[in-house]
Every structure is written in C-alpha cells, then in structure tokens.
C-alpha cells in the first residue's frame, strides 16, 4: 500500500492495521485507540501455519452466512498457462473467447484482440507491459501457424515476471506462494512442458528483449532465469483461480491463494469482471471464531476418488475432509456402486462402498454380501461409464437417449451416484419441455420426485450453496414449474386450490432468489434469476386473476 493518513491524527504514514493492512495508523497507540470502531470492518481472519497445510486462514470472530471475509484485486490476470492447439483463443486484452482468426489485432504487437479499444490493452498489468516485449518478434515467425506463433500460454508468465519491475511488494507476495517444486522435478511431465514454454519464451521474446535492453541501456525484466520461470508456473498451477464463462483466464490473488481446500467449503466466491476481476469471499455457512476458512479447488460434483486424484495431481495433497473420509459422502452415496459380484458370486443387490476412501488403493466392500473389489478395478469401470456420460452430455441429447443411458447406469451405480446426478439434472429440465410441452400427470410426478431427490443431495454436499448455487437454482426452478403446473391443473379440473401447495410454490421462489443472490453478476446466473422473477410474476398474476389472494 502507498502512504495514507492515520485514522486518528491524519498524519501521512506507511503504517497500517496489523490485521487487514487496509487502514493507516501512524503508531500502535493510534491503532489501539481506533480498535473498537475499526473491528467492525477489519478483516475477520488471521493467517495460521501448520506443517500439513502450510499457511491457511482462520476466523478471528464468529461469522454468519453472507458476511464478507475478504475482497481483493488480482496480482496477475492472463490467458491460461495450457497451450492452445486449436479452437477458440483469448483476446490478449480481456481474455474474452474469440473464434475468428481474422479478428482485430493490437495495433502495436499485432496479437489478436476482441476490439481495438479493449480496456486491457493499455493496462500495464495486463497487456500494456507485455506488448512492448511481444513487439520484438523474431524475423522468421511468419512461417508459423496461428497457434504456433500465438503462444497464449506464455503470456501469463510474462505478466507475472513483470511484477518484479512494477511492484516489489506484490512480486514478493507472489514469490511467497506455494509452488511445490518437490513435485515438479526434471523427471515429471509438467517440468518437460514448462521447459518447452521456456524455450518459446527465450527464442521469441527474452533473447530479443536482452538485445533491446543492451541497445537502450535499460533493464526491462531483471530476472528471467529458467529456475524462476519454473517457480512462476508452479505458483500459477497451485494457486490461480480459473475463469471459464465467456472469459477463459487464470487469475492469481494474494490472500485468497491462502485459503485451504475443503470438499464442503464454508465460503462462496464472486468475481466482478467490471471491477478488475475483484474477488470477494463471503461466509456460506456459519463460521465460528478459530475455525479454518475454506474454499474448494476441485469439482464438488465429482465423487471422492475423482476429487482425490484431481487434487493429488494438480495440488499435490490428499484431502482428509469429513466428506472425503466418509464412505457414504455425508449420506449421499454419491460414489456408491451397486454390488458387482465377482467370479464366484453373483451381484447381490447390495451397495458397494470404499472402506478408506482417502487411500489410493482402498478396497470396496459390498455392505450386504461383503465381497471385496480393488479401487483400481472400480475406478476403471466408473471411468468407462463416465466416458459414455460425457459423450451424451456433450451434445444436445433428447429425453429418450438420456433415459437410455440412465437405465444402463442404474444397473451398476447407486441411484444417487454422481454420474446419475448429472443425467437426472438434465432430464428434469427436459421433462415438460420436449415436444408440445404438455407433460402427463405421471411424468410430472416423476419430474417432481427427481427434483426433490437431487435437491436433497445438493443440500448435503453443498449445504451453504457455496459452489452449486446455479445447479440448485435450476432444480428449484424446475420444482417450482412442476408444482405450479399441478396447482393450475387441479384448479382447472376441480375448481379448488390447496393453500399449502400454493404457499410451498411461493416459498420455492423465495428460496431460489436467496440461492441466486450472488450469481446475478454471471451471465447464466442473471438469466436464471430473470426466469425466477418472471415465474413469480406469473404465479402472482394467476393468483390475482383467479381471486385467490385469500389463500396466501
Ligand atoms: C493454494 S495453496 C494454499 C496456501 C498454501 N498453504 C501456502 O502456504 O501458500 C494450496 C496448497 O496448500 C496446501 N493445502 C491446501 N488445502 C489443503 C488441505 N485440505 N490438506 C492438505 N494440504 C492443503 C497444499 O500444499 C496445496 O498445494
């Protein structure tokens, strides 16, 4: 932080609040004097350290859902560090996804942009600085293909390296983040992939940069050693947050990077694109003073084995949270299989669960007949089914096709298995929307039962709507549509209304508005929120036009 006026005496000082570092105090005495007023807005966390976790955040006061925990702008923002070989590519100004290779170009370095006045082009921490380096392209590059020439995956490393010149404090903050070099040594694939990026950077940009530095006698980037570039990519891989909707980018935050992982996170995050990708973490669940504040680094709609492998491969640890340790995943049976039997025994109809799910080679035991199968065998089988699910989900499959896959999956997987969850989540949106939109009474009952089952699972794996608010929003919306349809049908047929059911429908709408409250800044969140509001208008005008106000 630059200098600022002390909250008590207004004397300009560099001293800041020892907890949040956001407010200025010229002395410990003045910090103490202001404590009672400032503690209301001061960061509600401190940084702890442990051998197992490294640094982590813990609450310094009790927090209730929606309380803001931290809000900050990025250290580094840029295209993802994975090489793009075909398909969509990012604008170098804002990382918005582009598909047309004949798009506009930055007038100075000629890299692809969404529009000539893209705001990121001039910002020094986005394209502004790197543009001076990209302009120094070597002569023979014209012969290369689009994706060979435009190596978007090296831009974020250049932007990170630029911090050493623009802000020493931010540079040091970044270098203090975990990079896990012990897991990224010369014999690993990730090391080899980064060596290739280093070669590209060296040949295309760093060599010409050093020539240019020699000519002008000015140092533009101080340290560009391969060792440092490996560390930068390690920091990005372990800590950065991925943006995926319309904008494909990686964003590295200074304090948010310290949040520890939990598969049942107690915080939710929002990222505000309009405010320089500011990230805000709020409590999703009540957090008691002294409790760890957690986020999630993986997809909580995956089963334990898939989450465990993903975390191990990308973040280099094994999660031991309560969901990971519980074979039933909080009573959801989200990874459970039906008994598969073995060479000697036929499937008995029981449920097969992992005994120690956090262990890589754990055994799976049938609760009923006790036959055991190794983890590897179970996972190969689930991966095989997963490929089939990915295939139907990647295209606009119709009800019949999804139901076909679901009925096959139900032979092998528990009805609540995460692959079944994905298929059912699509089905509930299609029931009543395919064909002429008229839904039979039996299908309507089935749709509502499926919605209720999925809502219950979602509440268990994400009790604070920390990550699944959009999934939950869709389910509540479909549940509302189904219930409203039942109410209107009953009214048309029997000229009567069940007041309890009417109130239930209104409650679902209210709950959905709460669930989607922090999603409205995203395109899909805003769209769904609008649908919920329109449904509410429709229900209210139906109540009014049928003179049913007395029922609610
Ligand atoms: C994004 S960083 C978090 C900050 C890091 N602890 C530090 O000191 O810089 C992610 C790393 O923290 C550690 N970590 C985070 N959550 C963990 C957990 N639940 N169990 C074990 N290690 C964890 C792992 O080393 C992981 O690679």
TrEMBL record:
One of its GO terms (molecular function) is zinc ion binding. Residues 43-298 form the SET domain. CDD domains: SET_SMYD (cd20071). Pfam families: SET, zf-MYND. Keywords: Metal-binding, Zinc, Zinc-finger. Residues 6-42 form the MYND-type domain. PANTHER family: AT24727P, SET AND MYND DOMAIN CONTAINING, ARTHROPOD-SPECIFIC, MEMBER 4, ISOFORM A. This is Protein msta. It comes from Acanthoscelides obtectus (Bean weevil). The lineage of its organism: Eukaryota, Metazoa, Ecdysozoa, Arthropoda, Hexapoda.
